[in-house]
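Example 3.
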Amino acid sequence: MENVRGVEVHYYAICKRKLWLFHKGIRFENDGHERVIEGKILHEHAYPKMDKDVELEAFVRIDRQDGDVLREIKLTSKMKKADRLQMLYYLYILKQKGIRKTGLLSYTKEKETVEVHLDDDGEQEVRKALANIQTILEGNIPPFQKLPYCSKCAYKDFCFSGEADQDES
Amino acid sequence: MFVIITYDVGEKRVGKVCKKLREYLDWTQNSVFEGEIQKGKLTKCLNELQKILSDEDSIYIYKVENPNHLQKDVIGQDRSFDHTFF
Amino acid sequence: MNRDIFILSNGRMKRKDNTLYFEDEKGEKRPIPVEQTNSIHFLGQVDFNTSLLHLLSQHQICFHVYNYYGYYDGTFCPRNPKVSGFTVVQQSAHVLDPEKRMYLAKSFVLAGIHHMLRNIRRNGSNDTAYSDTILSMLDRVESARTIPELMGAEGHCRQVYYDAFGQLLKNGMEWHSRSKQPPKDPVNALISFGNSLMYTTIISEIYKTVLDPTVSFLHEPSSRRFSLSLDIAEIFKPLIIDSLVFTLLNNRRIQEKHFESKDGAVLLNSEGRKRFLAAFDEKMKTTIKHRKLNRQVSYRYLIRLEAYKLIKHFIGDEVYKPFKAWW
């Protein structure tokens, strides 16, 4: 079993290719991409009084912890499914350790929060996702597929690099 | 994009704001900086400036999306330096 | 959009208030926005200390050093935070397998020749003799089975290309043949200096990716420190440097008076060097519309995209096709 980070569960729900590349160390998050920077700033400023970047596992960290509530801060609510799965994964990790907590997704800019509870269905979902992630990481790179998300992705230039079919002269 | 940033801040913070802006842009005149900058970098810069500012201070940011659309005229002393060759 | 900084004067480069400052010999200090700095080229004699190196490391800025004659001396690359062991292993596998290695080596050579032919077409008369000769030699490049064979075939094409220079250069610039170390005439001086700049520019771009700059295909790995840069330079030298040389000489923006002779070598003088660097910098910032990204990208960024394509090739994603100017 490979160690799976929270962000990888999130990428899994959005784009399997991104998950694969990230896991192999081919990363573009620190290349000054606008949304990544915005996300970092938001992460830095929101909820200053709560515990920050709490380690659940050596490779898994949660944005904020406030008593029994885990909080993950998100820039937009456009990827709710992925956000929820990521939070379920955190709750799942804690449950393995016999700890029960509640998850809260904070869409700070939109002043919206979504509660996440780990029930049997949720746990099933996490197990399935983890199994699929293992399969993806053991396999070849998932082929490029254009998604609406591509235009705002830090990996865009990598995925779109290439030569158009040209007449050889 | 191309930005022009002007600031009017309390005396104690003038130096701090000026130094911060020097990390990102070119000094034009007293309290004025300009230059081409990526959107992400600008966000980062403004965020760092915000930490320095006090209530009565203000910073104005003028943006030109396409730098080619900018026309700049100078009357009197042109104090702009070469920013590539030293 | 990040800038390359060229330090031509003697002086001191230092860190002050978390940004860069250059102080010239007269003691005049000028700030350089560190956040906008891509890489730095030291052509003058410059003092610096480790505090500067720390700042450059924080911002992942490389600098390149050139000696008195403008020849490349070396590069400082901060510790690279981008590591992908997986990619490096795959990259190496493409050297170890002779067939895979030949594919890439040929790709670089063929793209280089494509750009040589382009230069002849764009700058030459209607005389097609030179291009016809090169085209007739392409078979030998394509059928080469070993690296030395490929190098030999490429060398023959390049010979014809250089023979064509006499026709491509207007204004009576002297030209006999390519001479390096030292360059014997102004045209050679320009090509040598330009090629050094091309090499360092590519090093800076490779550094921003997970590629290993020492693992190369056409050139023997680690034959020089960053031999992958030499490989990629095959594509871009004729596209960027040679065409720049033709433009500058044919428009008389650089003339005989911009050169001097030193110790048996012909070199650019300081005014000539400045003119060439300005033109080079401008060229690297020039944009073209990328057909897949569907937006304007600079020549400098084209090099980064070339590195991305190589990564995709190594990891089994998309077969590498070298960049060939289509316009």
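Chain B touches chain C at residues 19, 22-27, 35-38, 41, 44-45, 81, 83-86 (CB under 8 Å). The longest helix of chain B spans residues 39-52.
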